[in-house]
Amino acid sequence: MQKVRAKKHFGQHFLKDLKIAERIAQIIPENTKNVLEIGSGMGVLTQFLLENQSINFKAVEIDSEATIYLNEHFPRLDVINGNFLKMDLEKIFNGEKFVIIGNFPYNISSQIFFKAFNNRHLVTFVGGMLQKEVAERICAPAGSKTYGILSVLLQAYYDAKYLFGVSEHVFEPPPKVKSAVVALSRNATPSLNCDEREFAAIVKTAFNQRRKTLRNSLKKYAENQSLTDKIFDLRPEQLTFSQFEFLTNLILVKN
């Protein structure tokens, strides 16, 4: 198959180093059945994914012109022209579990991972390239400056790995930000030992005022009760997801 080179199109930044695209394609776990690529563009990553004959492969592309290009150059590819963030993921592979991969659009990369989180019963793996800053945030350990909402929520259900950085000079035109490739594999946690909606709400509330101690940032949960446990002396970046789990139960008992 003739390799597709990057093309400057639709005002986007396209990967011109095919070795990077090939490395990304190889991060898919073995024995994967269903694969969904997000943001296929001109098919630079798509071409390597199509080499794997054993997978049931589909692609999502929001731009209609890019969709036409993909249909013309990859006739056996099942391309869905639409907005991934608005899709019902249950319908894509008829309720079967699947893997998400892509050279993700940087302006919505966090939203893509949040959507994977909200569909964690379906998405067994999500990996690909995104802005380095977001990649570091996703994989950050507790106690680090980049640790935040994405870190806690995703790491509660996925094993997150920062695989490698990508220079801006491998794109045409070069973006103003650096990139990185991450891989998140669904862990063995079927559900948390707490109310999961409250867990997510408490994590988000705490990090929205990350410079404050939990005693101050979570005041609205106190309802005139004293938050006396020592955990409330900490700031949100100091807690692991299991400690947030404990915190959630503690708050619900108090209320």
How would you describe what is shown here?
This protein has 2 domains: 173 residues, Vaccinia Virus protein VP39 (Rossmann fold); 59 residues, Helicase, Ruva Protein, domain 3 (Orthogonal Bundle), CATH 1.10.8. A 7-stranded mixed β-sheet has the order 4-3-2-5-6-9-7, with helices on both faces. The longest helix is centred in the C-terminal third of the chain and has 14 residues. 33% of the residues lie in helices and 20% in strands. The N and C termini lie far apart (62 Å). 36% of the residues are buried. Strand 5, helix 5 and strand 6 form a beta-alpha-beta unit. With 255 residues, the chain is α/β, with parallel strands linked by helices.
Residue stretches low in confidence (pLDDT < 50, at least 5 long) are 5-11
CATH domain class name of the largest domain: Alpha Beta
Q: How many domain regions?
A: 2
Roughly what percent helix? Answer: 25-40%
Radius of gyration: 20 Å
Got a strand count? 9
Structural class computed from helices and strand pairing: alpha/beta
